[in-house]
Amino acid sequence: MYFIVWNSCGxxxxxxxxxxxxxxxxxxxxxxxxxxxxxxxxNYLFDKQCDLxxxxxxxxxxxxxxxxxxxxxxxxxxxxxxxxxxQIANIFAAIKPFQWPVWLALLISIICVITCLNLLxxxxxxxxxSAVRRAGNYYFYVLGNLLSQGSxxxxxxxxxxxxxxxxxxxxxVFVQAYTSILFTYxxxxxxxxxxxxxxxxxxxxxINLLYRKGSTLNVLVSDPEATGIFLKLQNKVKTSxxxxxxxxxxxxxxxxxxxxxxxxxxxxxxxxxxxENFEQTGKCGLELARDCFxxxxxxxxxxxxxxxxxxxxxxxxxxxxxxxxxHWSSWFPSMPGQCERQTKSGxxxxxxxxxxxxxxxxxxxxxxxxxxGFSLFVFGCEILNAICHRHQFLFDDK
Length: 398
Description:
By secondary structure, the chain is α+β, with helices and mostly antiparallel strands. The protein is 46% helix and 13% strand. Strands 1, 2, 3, 4, 5, 6, 7, 8 and 9 form a nine-stranded mixed beta sheet that branches.
């Protein structure tokens, strides 16, 4: 980080027509911290040790009272840096398409339909004792339609056919709704992000919010008169006792796969952290949450009522108009292709692999094995029952 000390100013205010001296500093916060006897970068402006502070200064009303801020030279947003979650087995994909009230209503409907059909059949039995018993067929009919296997309803009674027709239509709706939604859950990422937005941070008590002391977010959250989302974040920090850090590197080191820590900072710094993490580890261990939550204009700072404010504003406007700011951004290293998914923000769909893995279809295999296990259990019961009947028949013969 640098300061520029202006010794003389050219007529048009351009830097290339101005003699200047650059001063290297070690402070990493803007506002001074009197309670900790810590200087801030603004002290150089207050003490008239420099005329221009060249760094990303987010515009706030408090800062505007003590220093001059230029027109924004770029716009930034705060994003959450989170650890990439490990892949998990998609166990509950088979039941996720319906909420539990729907499953409960479906079970009650099955019981009611089977009961109605059996009662109608029993009435037939009373009127015609010679009628063939078909009670078991109704179980297969109801469940068969629900499993898209089909089953015949041989009764010619109008009441039975009405119940059967209503159930066929209802089963068709249930099956189509279930299968259409099931596909999305099977294809869903098996490593969902820790959070998607700032509201997840506020509502989830397990999430620990990290931000750098002295950062713009720290200033807004620490404000006793904070309102709205900042008041909620202030209460979150107080109740969760989240650890805070003095340096960006300290915060980033706390973002580990097994933790529930999330780090809030300007998006450009977060992208640098993702790139550096990839260069160090060879894999993408960090990613951005889906939504930014605070847009901020980034300015330069001068002493209050500085005679150079208008000249610097004019120079910044010329830089924006000529496209030099965008050109400078192209000098930075590009993001590795493997980490492109981790840097997407906004309402985007996370990319998935073209082929499904075993973890995607875990729930389907669980249903299969449970069904096979139940079938083997019933088969064993039938064998035991047949053995018992055979022994009983042999005993009766003796």
